[in-house]
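Q: I have 180 residues here and want to know how they pack in 3D. Can you give me a structure?
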Amino acid sequence: MAKKATGTPFAGGVAEMPHLGVLDDIWQRGGLRNLPLHLVLVAKLIDRYVGGLLARHSSLSLAEWRVVAQLSIMTHGTVRGMARRACVDPAEVSRSAAALVGRGLLRREDNAHDRRSPRFSLTAQGMAEFARFRPHWERLSRTLMMGLEPSEAVVIERSLARFARSCLDLLGEGWKETST
């Protein structure tokens, strides 16, 4: 369970900073100008935690989970499209998709629009694997939101979307939306 606040006020002075253990030092130095570092650290912590959950409750790796989770939402996708939406290298998605096809969790189909880029979708077994892990994913989501007022959750969601938009703009032309 998380420790109570250390008494260090946030930049706005309204709330106190929770105790972050090993991260306290790096988090407190530089304040909001280190926000990108804070976001990277939180993303890494979530990846580590989800990786552990997957190891305990699923046969999927983190890279494979990204593919399965996307296909549970998007119904079908190409390697390039899934890589872009997950902000990862297409080779990672390609390896994961091949492994998942080999284990019967994904179906590979020819793409009528681009023969070089097959489309993937979940099989019944893939959907079952997703459904088996989903309660753990949802518990993590609830835990992350615990203690937040609904209005705070909305502000966080909007802020993260704005950060994502800013990053996409900074990355430029190579990250324009794609239909694949």
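Q: Anything worth noting?
A: DSSP finds seven helices and five strands in the chain. The radius of gyration is 19 Å.
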